[in-house]
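Good morning C.,

I know you're traveling, so I'll keep this short. The sequence:
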Amino acid sequence: MGNLTRSHMIETGVWLAICIIFFVYSFEFNQPIEIYKFGATGWPRVVLVLLLLATIGNFFYLRTHGSAVQKGRVGIADEDEAGTDYSDTGAVMKVVGVLGTPFVFAMLLKPVGFYFATPFFIALIIFLFGERRVKWILGITVLIYAMLLGLFMVVLNAPLPQGNMSPFYDYSAFILTLNTQLQQMW
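The tokens, ready to paste straight into the viewer:
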């Protein structure tokens, strides 16, 4: 079957299983929503369809090209992975930091809230990925934060966790008040 290896087949099977399991599970919370005609499962199913399309596209790409390194392609080949040295404590800590930061962010959403925690999360991830120039970290953080606020507050009009601790909740209330005032101007 072309350049497919056993690991390619397993990877494709795992992604297909994830798509199928979550699609089947989406029927558990399929309820109508007054302001959204596609119901509670509309967006989750769109994301699952996109994941399914990406999985199928990746399968056909791997069938044609395999894991061969292409010039200009970001990432590593299967052969390069064997040479990775995890004996360096700094490299292990970086991997733990990059993988652990989203979990810490998720745990802080309830007490601190999305509006306050997100810029710090974005800046920390950028820092952990190796960027050290403060102007770039701040600029990219502000850009991504503004895009997220625009997407969730203006386009989707989706409620986000506000936090339940005093200074963080106050900041979230300020952002929501600003959003209301801006939307009333239009």
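Safe travels,
E.
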